[in-house]
Amino acid sequence: MANALPRNADVAAQFDLLADLMELEGADRFRVSSYRSAASRIRETGSSVAQLALDGRAKELQGIGKTIEGKIVEIVEDGEIHALSKRKDVVPGDVALFMRLPGLGAKTAARIWHELGVTTLDELRAAAEQQRLRDLGGLGAKTEERILKALNDTAEAEPFRPLLGDALPALLAVVEVLREHPASDQVSDAGSARRRKETIRDLDIIATASDPPALIDYFTSLRWVVEIAAKGDTKATVVSNDGYRFDLRVVPPESYGNLLQHFTGSKEHNLALREAAVRRKLSVSEYGVTETESGTVHTHATEEELYRFLGYDWIPPELRENCGELEAARAHELPALVELDDIRGDLHSHSTWSDGKETLEVMARAAKARGYAYLAITDHGERLREGRAEEQWAEVDALNERLKPFRIVKGVEVGIRADGGLALGDEALAGFEWVIASLHTSFDRNPTERVLAAIENPNVHMIGHLTARKLNIRSGADIDIERVVEKAVETGTFLEINAQPNRLDLRDTHARVAGEAGVKIPVSTDSHQLSALGHMPIGVAQARRAWLTKEQVLNTRTWKQIERLRKR
DNA sequence: GCCGTTTTCGGCCCGACTGTTTTCAGTCG
Question: Taking the model in full, what pTM does it have?
């Protein structure tokens, strides 16, 4: 196997660090922000940016030009950006960490370093404790306190971000409750949760109201509120008993569109939107759009009006990541994204025949009650040896007779072993109607090669949760998405979006690469219990973030249609 | 350093908050 190329996340980290070090040196702020925006573009790109740079094609990405492409090649060839290696020799290691402390930026960090000679976090703590920071003009007691608090918080820092699948139902429930209050008019979720990003920090709500203080009062007195972090006439922040921070902003109805758009983000989307507007002599803010020359301010009651005023079609929140949606919206070429109602069945689930909590019948009836036409039961192949598969099929046949026209599909999920083989032999697999192959172990052992071998197996219809990542727990196998997608297209193998809240795997960027290449993508829940069937909406949201249409999502079809698309 | 429906040069989002200040720089989202 060839030397693995650096991952996008590692490439991005080098540019972020380079930006930090240059900012500490007082470099031109636009150069610094170029590196930052390149880092974020690299992080959000599905395919290997290192490979793109080697092919001379990284320049095609927004915000990456000749210079940065060259620096990516330096990473591939020498392990590190040359300019970064050079600066690391100049700037003491911890000084860049000063900047990570909240409220402490490059300017202050550089002054602490240069004027006090403080170069480590320990020295910084000592300087704050000994009240030496206030010797610097512009810094006072408050700053010292804040730094000490930040240093203590960092010690127990958890990188944990709540999962969309956990937080979204809570958010939507609060939106619903606020909608029902007599003082409210329009209420919407906003922020990264509205964009259905896989993890979130705060839960944002935007509302208009006939009586804003009444709505704020109601919001802060809901029974699950355990802390009111802030409360004013138009804005409040509360913490719920399950630890989520909810932010409610009540805004004037005439600029509801402007504010909802602003607070939905993303930052990158808004930045690009505003830069494009500036070129046309318009200044966009959360309060409206100002004509720079005349000073005339236009407000918009809806997002549709705002986007139309700026020359765009309305952009679904899931697409607002500055990954081509603005250009597409201007050209009226946005895709018609798949919707939850398009889903006709679930192709990945477990029962008590393996590690599921519910019987086959309970799972099937629940799927039927959701309005599905079919459910693939895909218990682990390791548990269906020695005649147990045939026993399960007899039960399936009997149930199908009773539940028709609903259909339980005779499926199986087989592990891809460390040696690249599958947990069941070809003869056993051939008996199933629907075969999923998934990585469950040894994620570091040639994961791409093993997945490619599974894809080449004529009995395997779909690869489950491609990277096997677990959000907040492990980053998942380092899969060469390009090669996997190419092989999947060639063989007619499907690549799943697994809707489990801590998987969402394919991730959005990988699913987009796969979809563009022509892979059909099933969205499935991998349910091990009844409630998990309810994760379909976040799986569909993930598909929407990947720009997928109904046509590109496999299980918007009847089972008969899927049978015809399935490889032989 | 990037980028172009006024530009291959000369620009580069916008506003709120904070702390330390008498008018603003730095930081943040």
Answer: 0.95
